Protein backbone atom coordinates (compact mmCIF):
# COMPACT_ATOMS: atom_id res chain seq x y z
CA UNK A 1 0.00 0.00 0.00
CA UNK A 2 1.49 3.35 -1.07
CA UNK A 3 1.64 6.45 1.14
CA UNK A 4 -1.39 8.14 -0.48
CA UNK A 5 -3.57 5.06 0.01
CA UNK A 6 -2.43 4.75 3.64
CA UNK A 7 -3.21 8.40 4.35
CA UNK A 8 -6.60 8.08 2.65
CA UNK A 9 -7.37 5.04 4.76
CA UNK A 10 -6.48 6.95 7.93
CA UNK A 11 -8.71 9.88 6.92
CA UNK A 12 -11.63 7.50 6.28
CA UNK A 13 -11.09 5.95 9.73
CA UNK A 14 -11.09 9.41 11.33
CA UNK A 15 -14.28 10.50 9.51
CA UNK A 16 -15.99 7.23 10.41
CA UNK A 17 -14.93 7.76 14.04
CA UNK A 18 -16.31 11.32 14.06
CA UNK A 19 -19.61 10.14 12.59
CA UNK A 20 -19.90 7.34 15.16
CA UNK A 21 -19.07 9.67 18.09
CA UNK A 22 -21.58 12.25 16.80
CA UNK A 23 -24.27 9.54 16.69
CA UNK A 24 -23.48 8.44 20.26
CA UNK A 25 -23.63 12.05 21.50
CA UNK A 26 -26.84 12.74 19.57
CA UNK A 27 -28.58 9.83 21.32
CA UNK A 28 -26.97 10.41 24.73
CA UNK A 29 -29.03 10.04 27.89
CA UNK A 30 -27.96 12.32 30.75
CA UNK A 31 -28.77 9.57 33.25
CA UNK A 32 -26.31 7.22 31.49
CA UNK A 33 -23.49 9.69 30.91
CA UNK A 34 -20.77 7.34 32.19
CA UNK A 35 -21.83 4.66 29.67
CA UNK A 36 -21.95 7.30 26.92
CA UNK A 37 -18.38 8.46 27.66
CA UNK A 38 -17.22 4.84 27.73
CA UNK A 39 -18.77 4.21 24.30
CA UNK A 40 -17.12 7.39 22.95
CA UNK A 41 -13.75 6.15 24.23
CA UNK A 42 -13.97 2.85 22.37
CA UNK A 43 -15.15 4.63 19.20
CA UNK A 44 -12.15 7.01 19.30
CA UNK A 45 -9.75 4.03 19.33
CA UNK A 46 -11.02 3.04 15.87
CA UNK A 47 -9.96 6.40 14.41
CA UNK A 48 -6.30 6.05 15.38
CA UNK A 49 -3.40 4.62 13.39
CA UNK A 50 -2.91 1.79 15.91
CA UNK A 51 -6.46 1.11 17.16
CA UNK A 52 -5.58 -2.04 19.11
CA UNK A 53 -2.64 -0.37 20.82
CA UNK A 54 -4.30 3.00 21.52
CA UNK A 55 -6.12 3.55 24.83
CA UNK A 56 -8.48 6.46 25.49
CA UNK A 57 -9.11 8.23 28.80
CA UNK A 58 -11.91 10.75 29.37
CA UNK A 59 -11.82 12.83 32.56
CA UNK A 60 -14.61 15.24 33.57
CA UNK A 61 -15.60 16.82 36.89
CA UNK A 62 -18.04 13.97 37.60
CA UNK A 63 -16.63 10.99 35.69
CA UNK A 64 -13.35 9.32 34.81
CA UNK A 65 -13.56 6.53 32.23
CA UNK A 66 -10.90 4.74 30.18
CA UNK A 67 -10.63 1.85 27.74
CA UNK A 68 -7.93 0.24 29.92
CA UNK A 69 -7.31 0.34 33.66
CA UNK A 70 -3.50 0.50 33.69
CA UNK A 71 -2.30 3.66 31.95
CA UNK A 72 0.89 4.38 33.90
CA UNK A 73 3.75 3.88 31.43
CA UNK A 74 2.45 5.67 28.35
CA UNK A 75 3.11 8.46 25.89
CA UNK A 76 0.09 10.60 25.21
CA UNK A 77 -1.64 13.43 23.42
CA UNK A 78 -4.25 15.52 25.23
CA UNK A 79 -7.13 17.83 24.41
CA UNK A 80 -8.99 20.03 26.90
CA UNK A 81 -12.73 19.57 27.39
CA UNK A 82 -14.33 22.99 27.83
CA UNK A 83 -17.83 23.69 29.17
CA UNK A 84 -19.05 27.26 28.66
CA UNK A 85 -15.41 28.21 27.88
CA UNK A 86 -14.16 26.86 31.22
CA UNK A 87 -11.79 23.89 31.33
CA UNK A 88 -13.79 21.02 32.83
CA UNK A 89 -11.85 17.94 31.82
CA UNK A 90 -9.44 16.20 29.48
CA UNK A 91 -9.56 13.76 26.58
CA UNK A 92 -6.34 11.73 26.41
CA UNK A 93 -5.01 9.18 23.91
CA UNK A 94 -2.33 6.78 25.20
CA UNK A 95 0.27 4.51 23.57
CA UNK A 96 2.51 2.13 25.50
CA UNK A 97 5.84 3.88 26.10
CA UNK A 98 7.80 0.62 25.69
CA UNK A 99 6.65 0.32 22.06
CA UNK A 100 5.98 3.88 20.94
CA UNK A 101 7.19 7.46 21.24
CA UNK A 102 5.14 10.68 21.20
CA UNK A 103 6.19 11.23 17.58
CA UNK A 104 4.17 8.15 16.57
CA UNK A 105 0.93 10.10 17.04
CA UNK A 106 -0.24 11.70 13.79
CA UNK A 107 -1.02 15.40 13.56
CA UNK A 108 -4.48 14.45 12.29
CA UNK A 109 -5.01 12.35 15.43
CA UNK A 110 -4.50 15.46 17.57
CA UNK A 111 -7.07 17.27 15.40
CA UNK A 112 -9.48 14.33 15.78
CA UNK A 113 -9.04 14.43 19.54
CA UNK A 114 -9.66 18.22 19.57
CA UNK A 115 -12.87 17.80 17.52
CA UNK A 116 -14.22 15.11 19.82
CA UNK A 117 -13.27 17.05 22.98
CA UNK A 118 -15.27 19.97 21.57
CA UNK A 119 -18.27 17.67 20.97
CA UNK A 120 -18.03 16.24 24.52
CA UNK A 121 -17.95 19.81 25.86
CA UNK A 122 -21.13 20.58 23.89
CA UNK A 123 -22.76 17.46 25.35
CA UNK A 124 -21.87 18.50 28.92
CA UNK A 125 -23.20 22.02 28.25
CA UNK A 126 -26.48 20.57 26.99
CA UNK A 127 -26.84 18.35 30.07
CA UNK A 128 -26.06 21.27 32.41
CA UNK A 129 -28.69 23.44 30.71
CA UNK A 130 -31.26 20.63 30.97
CA UNK A 131 -30.43 20.12 34.66
CA UNK A 132 -30.80 23.85 35.36
CA UNK A 133 -34.13 23.99 33.51
CA UNK A 134 -35.41 20.95 35.44
CA UNK A 135 -34.26 22.45 38.75
CA UNK A 136 -35.88 25.81 37.94
CA UNK A 137 -39.12 24.11 36.91
CA UNK A 138 -39.21 22.17 40.19
CA UNK A 139 -38.57 25.34 42.20
CA UNK A 140 -41.39 27.15 40.38
CA UNK A 141 -43.78 24.23 40.87
CA UNK A 142 -42.80 24.05 44.55
CA UNK A 143 -43.34 27.81 44.96
CA UNK A 144 -46.74 27.56 43.24
CA UNK A 145 -47.81 24.72 45.53
CA UNK A 146 -46.70 26.63 48.63
CA UNK A 147 -48.50 29.75 47.39
CA UNK A 148 -51.77 27.84 46.85
CA UNK A 149 -51.32 26.08 50.19
CA UNK A 150 -50.76 29.47 51.84
CA UNK A 151 -54.03 30.85 50.44
CA UNK A 152 -55.97 27.77 51.61
CA UNK A 153 -54.26 27.88 55.02
CA UNK A 154 -55.08 31.58 55.46
CA UNK A 155 -58.74 30.89 54.75
CA UNK A 156 -58.86 28.01 57.22
CA UNK A 157 -57.07 30.04 59.90
CA UNK A 158 -59.49 32.96 59.56
CA UNK A 159 -62.49 30.62 59.69
CA UNK A 160 -61.21 28.95 62.86
CA UNK A 161 -60.26 32.14 64.70
CA UNK A 162 -63.81 33.30 65.44
CA UNK A 163 -65.26 30.01 66.79
CA UNK A 164 -62.13 29.43 68.89
CA UNK A 165 -62.45 32.90 70.41
CA UNK A 166 -66.11 32.16 71.19
CA UNK A 167 -65.28 28.78 72.74
CA UNK A 168 -62.61 30.36 74.91
CA UNK A 169 -64.86 33.24 75.98
CA UNK A 170 -67.85 31.05 76.88
CA UNK A 171 -65.61 28.50 78.64
CA UNK A 172 -64.18 31.23 80.87
CA UNK A 173 -67.71 32.48 81.68
CA UNK A 174 -68.81 28.92 82.40
CA UNK A 175 -65.86 28.43 84.74
CA UNK A 176 -67.04 31.40 86.83
CA UNK A 177 -70.55 29.87 87.07
CA UNK A 178 -69.11 26.52 88.15
CA UNK A 179 -66.72 27.86 90.76
CA UNK A 180 -68.34 25.70 93.44
CA UNK A 181 -68.20 22.50 91.36
CA UNK A 182 -64.58 21.32 91.35
CA UNK A 183 -65.07 18.42 88.89
CA UNK A 184 -66.90 20.52 86.34
CA UNK A 185 -64.40 23.36 86.81
CA UNK A 186 -61.53 20.98 86.05
CA UNK A 187 -63.28 19.86 82.84
CA UNK A 188 -63.74 23.49 81.79
CA UNK A 189 -60.04 24.10 82.48
CA UNK A 190 -59.27 21.31 79.98
CA UNK A 191 -61.51 23.01 77.40
CA UNK A 192 -59.72 26.33 77.97
CA UNK A 193 -56.27 24.72 77.79
CA UNK A 194 -57.02 22.89 74.52
CA UNK A 195 -58.64 25.98 73.00
CA UNK A 196 -55.53 28.04 73.75
CA UNK A 197 -53.41 25.30 72.17
CA UNK A 198 -55.65 25.33 69.09
CA UNK A 199 -55.31 29.11 68.86
CA UNK A 200 -51.51 28.72 68.84
CA UNK A 201 -51.80 26.25 65.97
CA UNK A 202 -53.95 28.76 64.06
CA UNK A 203 -51.40 31.49 64.84
CA UNK A 204 -48.64 29.35 63.33
CA UNK A 205 -50.79 28.68 60.27
CA UNK A 206 -51.22 32.42 59.86
CA UNK A 207 -47.44 32.86 60.06
CA UNK A 208 -47.09 30.38 57.20
CA UNK A 209 -49.73 32.24 55.20
CA UNK A 210 -47.94 35.59 55.91
CA UNK A 211 -51.06 36.89 57.66
CA UNK A 212 -49.53 37.93 60.99
CA UNK A 213 -49.11 41.65 61.77
CA UNK A 214 -45.51 42.87 61.78
CA UNK A 215 -43.55 45.66 63.38
CA UNK A 216 -40.92 46.31 60.73
CA UNK A 217 -37.86 48.31 61.77
CA UNK A 218 -34.18 48.63 60.91
CA UNK A 219 -32.38 45.95 62.93
CA UNK A 220 -28.88 44.51 63.20
CA UNK A 221 -29.01 40.76 62.55
CA UNK A 222 -25.80 39.91 64.44
CA UNK A 223 -27.08 40.48 68.02
CA UNK A 224 -30.36 38.75 67.09
CA UNK A 225 -28.45 35.60 66.11
CA UNK A 226 -26.29 35.76 69.25
CA UNK A 227 -29.38 36.25 71.43
CA UNK A 228 -31.14 33.23 69.85
CA UNK A 229 -28.03 31.10 70.50
CA UNK A 230 -27.90 32.34 74.10
CA UNK A 231 -31.58 31.42 74.61
CA UNK A 232 -30.81 27.87 73.43
CA UNK A 233 -27.59 27.45 75.40
CA UNK A 234 -29.27 25.04 77.85
CA UNK A 235 -30.67 22.97 74.96
CA UNK A 236 -27.23 22.69 73.35
CA UNK A 237 -25.77 21.44 76.64
CA UNK A 238 -28.65 19.07 77.40
CA UNK A 239 -28.45 17.38 73.98
CA UNK A 240 -24.61 17.45 74.04
CA UNK A 241 -24.46 19.34 70.75
CA UNK A 242 -21.74 21.89 69.97
CA UNK A 243 -21.98 24.94 67.77
CA UNK A 244 -19.63 27.11 65.75
CA UNK A 245 -20.49 30.71 64.86
CA UNK A 246 -18.98 32.12 61.67
CA UNK A 247 -19.83 35.81 61.54
CA UNK A 248 -16.99 38.13 60.57
CA UNK A 249 -18.90 41.40 60.78
CA UNK A 250 -20.47 43.18 63.73
CA UNK A 251 -23.24 44.86 61.74
CA UNK A 252 -25.65 43.43 59.19
CA UNK A 253 -28.68 45.67 58.88
CA UNK A 254 -32.03 44.76 57.38
CA UNK A 255 -35.63 45.84 57.71
CA UNK A 256 -37.47 43.22 59.73
CA UNK A 257 -39.73 42.41 62.64
CA UNK A 258 -37.10 41.57 65.32
CA UNK A 259 -39.38 39.14 67.18
CA UNK A 260 -40.24 37.22 64.02
CA UNK A 261 -36.60 37.24 62.91
CA UNK A 262 -35.61 35.76 66.29
CA UNK A 263 -38.28 33.11 65.78
CA UNK A 264 -36.74 32.15 62.42
CA UNK A 265 -33.27 31.66 63.95
CA UNK A 266 -34.72 29.98 67.03
CA UNK A 267 -36.83 27.46 65.06
CA UNK A 268 -34.01 26.58 62.66
CA UNK A 269 -31.59 26.03 65.56
CA UNK A 270 -34.14 23.96 67.50
CA UNK A 271 -34.63 21.81 64.40
CA UNK A 272 -30.84 21.41 63.98
CA UNK A 273 -30.38 20.48 67.65
CA UNK A 274 -33.16 17.88 67.46
CA UNK A 275 -31.61 16.05 64.51
CA UNK A 276 -27.97 16.38 65.60
CA UNK A 277 -26.18 13.33 67.04
CA UNK A 278 -24.39 13.45 70.38
CA UNK A 279 -21.24 15.59 70.03
CA UNK A 280 -22.47 16.78 66.66
CA UNK A 281 -21.58 20.29 65.51
CA UNK A 282 -24.00 22.92 64.23
CA UNK A 283 -22.46 25.68 62.11
CA UNK A 284 -24.17 29.08 62.17
CA UNK A 285 -23.00 31.41 59.42
CA UNK A 286 -24.03 34.91 58.38
CA UNK A 287 -22.61 37.03 55.60
CA UNK A 288 -23.73 39.87 53.39
CA UNK A 289 -23.51 40.52 49.68
CA UNK A 290 -24.14 43.77 47.88
CA UNK A 291 -27.92 43.34 48.10
CA UNK A 292 -28.65 40.50 50.56
CA UNK A 293 -27.94 39.06 53.97
CA UNK A 294 -27.45 35.28 53.99
CA UNK A 295 -27.90 33.04 57.03
CA UNK A 296 -26.78 29.40 56.88
CA UNK A 297 -27.42 26.77 59.53
CA UNK A 298 -25.74 23.41 58.94
CA UNK A 299 -26.18 20.29 61.08
CA UNK A 300 -24.68 16.78 61.09
CA UNK A 301 -27.99 14.90 61.32
CA UNK A 302 -29.49 12.37 58.94
CA UNK A 303 -30.43 14.93 56.30
CA UNK A 304 -33.49 14.66 54.06
CA UNK A 305 -34.92 11.95 51.89
CA UNK A 306 -35.29 13.15 48.30
CA UNK A 307 -39.11 13.26 48.48
CA UNK A 308 -39.05 15.10 51.83
CA UNK A 309 -37.24 18.12 50.35
CA UNK A 310 -40.37 18.90 48.31
CA UNK A 311 -42.59 18.99 51.42
CA UNK A 312 -40.33 20.26 54.19
CA UNK A 313 -42.03 23.70 54.46
CA UNK A 314 -45.61 22.44 54.19
CA UNK A 315 -47.76 22.74 57.34
CA UNK A 316 -48.07 19.55 59.41
CA UNK A 317 -45.31 17.75 57.49
CA UNK A 318 -42.68 16.37 59.83
CA UNK A 319 -40.04 13.62 59.83
CA UNK A 320 -40.08 13.52 63.63
CA UNK A 321 -41.80 10.62 65.44
CA UNK A 322 -45.45 11.09 66.39
CA UNK A 323 -45.73 13.34 69.44
CA UNK A 324 -42.33 14.99 68.94
CA UNK A 325 -43.49 17.80 66.69
CA UNK A 326 -46.54 19.41 65.12
CA UNK A 327 -44.92 19.91 61.70
CA UNK A 328 -45.48 23.68 61.88
CA UNK A 329 -42.01 24.96 62.89
CA UNK A 330 -40.48 25.10 59.40
CA UNK A 331 -43.73 26.26 57.80
CA UNK A 332 -43.73 29.19 60.25
CA UNK A 333 -40.12 29.96 59.27
CA UNK A 334 -41.06 29.86 55.58
CA UNK A 335 -44.00 32.22 56.15
CA UNK A 336 -41.92 34.75 58.09
CA UNK A 337 -39.11 34.70 55.50
CA UNK A 338 -41.61 35.10 52.64
CA UNK A 339 -43.32 38.01 54.41
CA UNK A 340 -39.89 39.70 54.63
CA UNK A 341 -39.48 39.31 50.85
CA UNK A 342 -36.79 36.68 51.40
CA UNK A 343 -36.13 33.10 50.38
CA UNK A 344 -35.33 29.92 52.28
CA UNK A 345 -33.73 26.80 50.85
CA UNK A 346 -33.39 23.36 52.44
CA UNK A 347 -30.82 20.93 51.05
CA UNK A 348 -28.63 18.03 52.06
CA UNK A 349 -25.01 18.67 52.96
CA UNK A 350 -22.49 16.93 50.68
CA UNK A 351 -21.02 14.93 53.59
CA UNK A 352 -23.92 14.54 56.03
CA UNK A 353 -26.74 16.50 57.58
CA UNK A 354 -28.88 19.35 56.29
CA UNK A 355 -28.32 22.98 55.37
CA UNK A 356 -30.93 25.72 55.68
CA UNK A 357 -30.08 28.91 53.79
CA UNK A 358 -32.09 32.06 54.43
CA UNK A 359 -31.63 35.02 52.09
CA UNK A 360 -33.07 38.38 53.14
CA UNK A 361 -32.80 41.79 51.43
CA UNK A 362 -30.47 44.31 53.10
CA UNK A 363 -31.58 47.68 54.40
CA UNK A 364 -29.50 50.18 52.45
CA UNK A 365 -30.32 53.18 54.68
Describe the protein's architecture and organization:
The structure is a single chain. The chain is of the alpha+beta class. The chain folds into 3 domains: 3-133, GAF domain (Beta-Lactamase, 2-Layer Sandwich), CATH 3.30.450.40; 136-208, Helix Hairpins (Orthogonal Bundle), CATH 1.10.287; 217-361, 2-Layer Sandwich (Heat Shock Protein 90). 50% of the residues lie in helices and 20% in strands. It is built from 8 helices and 11 strands. It has helices spanning 3-26, 33-46, 107-177, 182-208, 221-231, 233-238, 258-275, 329-339, and strands at 55-60, 64-66, 74-83, 86-96, 217-220, 242-247, 253-256, 281-288, 292-298, 343-348, 354-361. The strands form 3 sheets. The protein has a 5-stranded mixed beta sheet, with helices on one face. A hairpin with a 3-residue loop joins strand 1 and strand 2. Helix 1 (3-26) runs parallel beside helix 3 and helix 5 (221-231) packs across helix 7 (258-275). The longest helix is centred in the middle third of the chain and has 71 residues, at 107-177.
Distance between the termini: 82 Å
Compute the number of strand runs.
11
Specify the overall morphology: elongated
Instruction: Evaluate the radius of gyration.
Output: 31 Å
Main sheet record:
5 strands, mixed
Look at the helices and sheets and give the structural class. Answer: alpha+beta
Give the helix tally.
8
Q: Per CATH, which architecture of the largest domain?
A: 2-Layer Sandwich
Helical content band = 40-55%
Amino acid sequence: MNTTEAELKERIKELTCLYEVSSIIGNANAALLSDTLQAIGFSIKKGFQFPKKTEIEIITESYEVSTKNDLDNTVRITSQIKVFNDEKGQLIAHLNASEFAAIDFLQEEQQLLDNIAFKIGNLLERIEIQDNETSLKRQMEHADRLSILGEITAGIAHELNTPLANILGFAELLKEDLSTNNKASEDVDKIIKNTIFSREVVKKLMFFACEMPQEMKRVNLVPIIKNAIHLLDASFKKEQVKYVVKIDEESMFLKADPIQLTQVIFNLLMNAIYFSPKNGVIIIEALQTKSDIIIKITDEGKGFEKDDLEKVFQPFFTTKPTGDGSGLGLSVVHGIVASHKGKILAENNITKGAIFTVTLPKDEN
